Model the fold of this input.
Amino acid sequence: MRALRRLGLLTWVLWRPLWLRALFEVMIFAAVAAMGIFFVSWPLKAPIDAVVSLLRAPFERIAHVPPDLHPRGALAVLALSPVLVAPAKEYDANRSYIPHLIRVELQIVDDLAAYDWLAAGADLLGGARPDGVRVDLDAAIYMGVGVGDEIVLLGAPWDGVPDVRLRVGGLLRPSPAQSPGENLLVVPTSFLPAEVLAAARSTPSIFTAESAWTVVFEPAPEEAVPAVSRGAAIASHLAELVNPLRFVGFVGIFAFSFGLWVVLLARSLGHVLGSLRARAAILAALGVRPTTIALAGLLPQLVVAAAGVGLATVAVRSVLFEFVLRRSLQGAILLPSLVPIAVILAVATLTARRVILRRLRGSDVVRDLTAEETM
Amino acid sequence: MIGQGVPVPAASTSVAATATPSPCRVEARGVQVSFSTGRRRVDVLRGLDLVIGPGERVALIGPSGVGKSTFLYCVAGLVRPQAGAIVLDGVDLGALDDATLADLRLRRIGIVYQAFHLLAALSALDNVALPLRLAGWGRTAARERARELLERVGLGDRADHRPAQLSGGEQQRVAVARAVANDPGLILADEPTGSLDPEVGDAVLDLLLEEARGRTVVVVTHQPAVAARLGRIVGIRGGRVVEDG
Done:
């Protein structure tokens, strides 16, 4: 802790004359990187939407859950919003889905809006056919909740596990293999017509004994998901990566983050060896270890580099997750792809450190100290 | 003892609790230093031998370029001789790694420069407090002691001023306060009055010698009047000691 405090103090002392410029550069980097990532890496749109939803949720009576929102995010939105609207996500027949179950109890302060949504939902369900306990829903599923209603949220793909068929609150979701349409269902029991509920309750295979609105999901037969080797899966998904647009985006993210980082590294090094050099010499003469001065000189750049690598990692994860690999296979690709970057960053940083250390030893320091200008 | 340094007080420790400095013994044995300028090699120190006892006050005199300052920075551990040894309190500085040497410099050696070398972005108070903070003092205790030191050098009312707001003499007084902040046993001064007019220079020298009481002092100067104020004058020429008395 003491060493960290000392490093912080030295960084402050060393960079103080340039802190405004350093801050400006970091902001420029962050802004440009954010823009680059936003435009180049459109897979990040979903997380951004999630953040926006979270920010909007407390101020809206009706929360909008982006289709790609992770269940944890949906849960947060639910916790902040009185009413939830969950649009269906376009079903992709090439992907497999596993439901993620979240049970949320909502207390509606004012059920007026909920009543409206109930009415809207009833209209939508006008075509629902209670016979056979199957309802074909359109592109969207709406929900309405009453005071104290309990709802169930389903969604979020968990790749790498067998597909399932869902039975939700008495509604049997069409099997993806049969009729693709939707995969995210939010169904309160109050939403269901009485005859549907009654019919469903009489069907033990659909409802559990404890609760009429408990979601029941059944794994599909094993043969529904053919066994694929990891190698074959990677190969087939890598073919997707070769898509020129995505490939350009993928490379662009790296080039962008990495290029900017290199520029910042060069500028940090330039500062330490240039305008900050005499200051570093004074610190060396005062008795600060050369390695500590080098670290303090590179610290702002290292922080920016860490942020850059973090952004790149998020982007890579998004790209891989969205287009390339099943989640269970991400580790096999993500880690190896980040290792070279980490190695290059480490080598570049150590080289910069060595250059600084060389300047902090011997005659260079003395030359700076015998210069006549005040630092 | 080298490497032990001054005790590091806790943040609440009184400034009066600092240790009494133990003066250093400096010994130079056949010190050789040369620099390369392009293809040309310049031998600055050519086997310099010198022993400075604890508490001695020594002036190094000689024309420009004879290696006075280089020797001073050798003693400070900032220049490593190509041959020979600098021994401080029985410890060969050449045997220490960079980190240990830096720690030694922080706790046992105070340096005063001709060009002051205060950090322009820091106030006088923070300049004096910096070596204390680096030595592990808490912020409050360091600033308290720094304020006391500034009052001792007559700048208590200028503590919050930046170097650019101080005169040359005032800046050098701040530099003296900074040099003695960690109670070092050795004070090295490289032309401490070289940038000051004679009157101010005399005052700064008075202050330096007063603050250096009980410590070993080595002053590089080309001013006979300054050298005369110190107890021992060592003349250097051609990279060697040619006069000692």
Q: What stands out?
A: Chain B touches chain A at residues 35, 69-70, 73, 76, 78-80, 98-99, 102-107, 109, 111, 113-122, 130-131, 133-136, 163-164, 171, 190, 195 (CB under 8 Å). Strands of chain B lie at 26-37, 40-52, 57-61, 83-88, 91-92, 109-112, 186-190, 216-220, 232-237, 240-244. Confidence is low (pLDDT under 50) at residues 1-18 of chain B. The CA atoms of residues 35 and 42 of chain B lie 5 Å apart.
